[in-house]
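Data availability (excerpt). All sequences and predicted token strings are deposited with the supplementary files. A representative entry, AmmeMemoRadiSam system protein B, is shown inline so that the format can be inspected without opening the archive.
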Amino acid sequence: MAARRVRVAAHAGLWYTANPAALAAMVDECLSAGASLPAGAGPPVALVGPHAGFSYCGTVLGSTYKHLPADCKRVVIMGPSHHVYLRRPVLSQADVMETPLGRVAVDRASVDELFASGQFDWFDPDADEAEHSIEMHLPFLQRAAVAAGMASAPSVVPIVIGGATAKHHRDIARAIAPLLRTPGTVLAVSTDFCHWGRRFEFTHGLEDRTKAVHESIRSLDMAGMSALSSLRPDAFAEYMAKTGNTICGRHPLSVMLQAVAAEALPSGGALHWLAYDQSGKALGKDDSSVSYAAGVLTGPAPAAAAAAGRGTEPTAASP
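Structure token line:
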């Protein structure tokens, strides 16, 4: 493995401002405006949020990290690979990850333990810095930690997943299970939802003349979010096989569901969808859009709220 190194904020100044004061103010505003969990919800154990430029998805990502637990010490954060083919999931070789707001420590001991499990490869440092799915969550993690009164941001265990099968999902979930069962550890999944348009080679909904394209996209995404809310890996796998929705983080999401199935994350909880938005309102075949959603998986609710159900979907008031 490479010697001690810093992963630089390669997308600062491109996908989000590199000015520390402006970045902190923008993220704080998004966190403050973020949607709340329903009354009686259990404690957050996993977070789901997008990874686009903050001008597109910042308000949605704020609804995700608004719910970082105040006692969180470590975040196992999983994202998809956008630029390189990966035969197996990969682990960052960095010791710290830099943003304009400072540095986030990588939990190297846990990363090394995962590598020793034989389920992971090392991420090439150049490919690591080119990949944005982990980086885009870090400023929100940092400012959420400040809002929660933490002395510093939780350490991270960054995992990037490329191609994967259901067996890979189960194997990864088993490998990270000891970390997730440790108090103070939260799972975070970095994913966008539908990527629609010719440039994504996905134009689902054009055949339905009764709906605007962006409404068809929303319906497609909501069906996927409903499948995820079932917390059943097979339900989400069936949805993906049926629709082919271009959810870039489908493999990390599947690992999250397998972690619930393996009881590495609490069963009997609920996946709450707090916000949803699209980068643009697609109307025809020449348009394009990317969808964003904020989800929070909570542990079992207090007894008084147990009858409230297993999950919630965004309401009409959601972004």
